[in-house]
Amino acid sequence: MTRKYFGTDGIRGQANKFPVTAEMALHVAMATASVLRGESAGNHKPRILIGKDTRLSCYMLEQALTAGFLSMGMDVLLTGPIPTPAVAMLTRSLRADAGIMISASHNKYSDNGIKIFAGDGYKLPDDIEQKIEALIDANNFEAKLAAPEDLGKAARIDDAPFGVLGRYMEFLKSSLPKGTNFRGLKVVVDAANGAAYKIAPQILWELEAEVISIGISPNGKNINDNLGATATEALQKRVVEEGADIGIALDGDADRLILVNEKGARIDGDQILAVMATHMQAQGTLKDNTLVATVMSNLGLEKYCAAKDINFIRTPVGDRYVVEEMRKHGFNLGGEQSGHMILSDYGTTGDGLLTALQILDLLKKSAGKSSVLLNVFQPLPQLLKNVHYEGANPMDHADVKAVIDKIKAELAHNGRILVRPSGTEPVIRVMAEGESHEIIEKAVDKICDVMIAVGKGA
Fold first, then answer.
1. CA 175: distance to chain centroid?
2. What is the per-residue pLDDT across 302-311, written as a single tens digit (0 to 9) for each?
3. Phi then psi for 329, rounded to 5 degrees?
4. Catalytic residue among 105, 175, 338, 344
5. Residue 177 DSSP label
6. Where do the CATH 3.40.120.10 domains begin and end in the chain?
7. What is the DSSP letter of 63?
8. How far, rounded to the nearest angstrom, does the alpha carbon of residue 213 sit from its chain's CA centroid?
9. Which CATH superfamily is 6-159 part of?
10. Architecture of domain 269-351
11. From residue 66, how far is each of 17, 76, 253 by CA, in Å?
């Protein structure tokens, strides 16, 4: 059974347009409450934690979600703007029954979404999301509403005594060896005008790095606006201008990390995974000597792992699938080329800041250049292009299927092609990699051209 509203990273779409409307958020909360109530034991009053990023539409969705949970007799804790991994951590720390993150991650401000974490800090499994969807469609909540005396209460906990940002910062610091500092490192951090706009520069300053910050002035509409993990040009330029040792790019909800070395070169998640896997293998902490990545990771990473006797496992795209594979077998390192890094010795989901601190610790100890530390393997030429579409998915068209099969056959011995729909937006991603830029560019363009022609003919 496929999910109807939930994609690979929660419910997502254009704000104030179905399914990301106030009414839908209300029903998501009520349906989630119904599922939680059915699975909870005892008579305790369930507690829900709700965080958000800096999008204008977060106010609308936050209030609607809150109303839905309160109407079902559940208490709500509101954190204000906070990274997604902090919501996962705080859900566990505060013994909440579930955590909600309102964010569309790396998307533009006009999009938004709802991610749900279970009480253990992990994203909901598919079967629970399907139960929630079924209840939303049934739209029969009246009999389940709380009596007036049993309505929930809401409280904002972004200040003392909870100090949610402080709790998260201490959690991040606890992942480092005692006494660690980044004294002598000059770091440029780009928070994408998103959820980490306060905490990212603050924690680096507390760890004694020299910090230059960009993307820390959110106005509700500038999140991910030519900044952050998906648009690193400004960071690359600033690192070189400042003579910094390294640059850190987070996305809108800070669950992704892309780095920039001192020369201004962009370092993606595959290289970061290679660095972490190599280090953990040397320390004897890489469980079952295994790295989990997705089908999007560069073939060069796979070849590197083979040369280092590191087991390499691929999953479908989406950090949820990486996490599922890691949990199933007890692995402790996985991630995506796009920058999601899961270090399960510490956290339950992708965490850009957590990974950045681990890399900064390695850089400080190496006493070398980030261009050396972060150059572990030679990637094969890889090209990714996006085809936006409206209406029917062009991948279902016979002409598109035919050209994909033809290209796969042509690249069989010298590379690979991957064509997949995005799980978060109406986009088809066409990726190819091989020994020659010219060959893979022709392959990608052929597929994209057919998709565009099919779309125009629809």
1. 19
2. 999 999 999 9
3. -115, 0
4. 105
5. P
6. 6-159, 184-266, 269-351
7. H
8. 21
9. Alpha-D-Glucose-1,6-Bisphosphate, subunit A, domain 3 (3.40.120.10)
10. 3-Layer(aba) Sandwich (3.40)
11. 19, 7, 20
Distance CA 266, CA 308 (A): 24
* Contact assessment for residue 336 and residue 269, using Cβ atoms and an 8 Å cutoff: yes
Q: What gap in Å lies between CA 247 and CA 209, rounded to an integer?
A: 12
Residue 161 preceded by cis peptide, ω within 30: yes
**pLDDT digits over 204-243, tens only?**
999 999 999 999 999 999 999 999 999 999 999 999 999 9
Measured CA distances, 361 to 30, 54, 366, 375 (Å): 44, 29, 9, 16
CA-closest candidate to residue 82, choices 52, 107, 113? 52
Question: Where do the CATH 3.30.310.50 domains begin and end in the chain?
Answer: 382-457
The answer to whether 338 is a known catalytic residue is: no
Q: Tokens 């779409």: give the residue.
A: 13
For residue 46, say if its preceding peptide bond is cis, omega within 30 degrees of 0. Answer: no
Tokens coding 202: 């603050």
Query: CB count, 10 Å around CB of 146?
Result: 14
DSSP string, 255-299: -BEEEEETTS-EE-HHHHHHHHHHHHHHHT-SGGGEEEEETTS-H
pLDDT of residue 431: 92
In tens, the pLDDT along 283-326 reads 999 999 999 999 999 999 999 999 999 999 999 988 999 999 99
> Taking the chain, what is the end-to-end CA distance rounded to the nearest angstrom?
28
Phi, psi angles (nearest 5°) of residue 217: -130, 65
E strand spans, 144-196? 154-156, 186-190
For 340-412, list the strands marked E by DSSP: 341-343, 382-388
Separation between Cα atoms, residue 313 and residue 272, nearest integer Å: 16
Closest C-alpha to 32, from 2, 1, 76 = 76
**Torsion sign, CA atoms 409, 410, 414, 417:** negative
The fold of 382-457 is TATA-Binding Protein (3.30.310)
State which CATH number among 3.40.190.100, 2.60.40.1180, 3.40.120.10, 3.40.190.10 fits the domain covering 184-266. Answer: 3.40.120.10
